[in-house]
Amino acid sequence: PEVTEKLEEVVMTWIKQIRQVLVESEQMRREADDIGPSAELEHWKARMSSFNSLLDEIKSSRVKKIISVLQAARSKTLKQWKELDCNITIAANEAKDNVRYLYTLDKFFCLLAKASPVTMVEHVPSLMNTVCMIYCTSPYYNTSERMTSLLLKITNQMINTCKTYLCEG
């Protein structure tokens, strides 16, 4: 019982830490008003990396041994642990999926940053078709909130490129 109690304390500490990571990942991001779409890809890459690291830690032999002992002891903390494990897996899958979809837009991000206003217009239909494809097929990125954020960043990039063109021209 003493060992089980100590292990439960350890697991409860992990649960608190993991909940904090999950809560922070869902909080609104504070971003500059003129931030471009590449920042969206960078955000999801960082999030994917952090959740993958967390998953690797959870799947480590040390953690598995502790969970096995608690399973044998029929610990009640395992219910919370399994729920969090599931939530982390979902968050990691979401980040991985969003990175995969945003990479399909990456070539457009470079074009928007380097194009003149005239040549930029040529890329807009393909860009919008790709955004539409993401909206229609992504299981995670198809919310109005995510799309609004992405389209705002694309618009910001177009405006920044036009400003640069005007100032240099």
TrEMBL record:
Q: Name one GO biological process term.
A: microtubule-based movement
What InterPro entries does the annotation carry? DHC, Dynein_heavy_tail
Instruction: List, alphabetically, the PANTHER family matched.
Output: CYTOPLASMIC DYNEIN 1 HEAVY CHAIN 1, MALE FERTILITY FACTOR KL5
Task: Tell me the name of the encoding gene.
Answer: Dnah5_1
Q: Which GO terms describe its cellular component?
A: axonemal dynein complex
Q: What is this protein called?
A: DYH5 protein
An example of a GO molecular function for this protein is: dynein light intermediate chain binding
Source organism of this protein record: Pandion haliaetus
Q: Which residues form the Dynein heavy chain tail domain?
A: 5-167
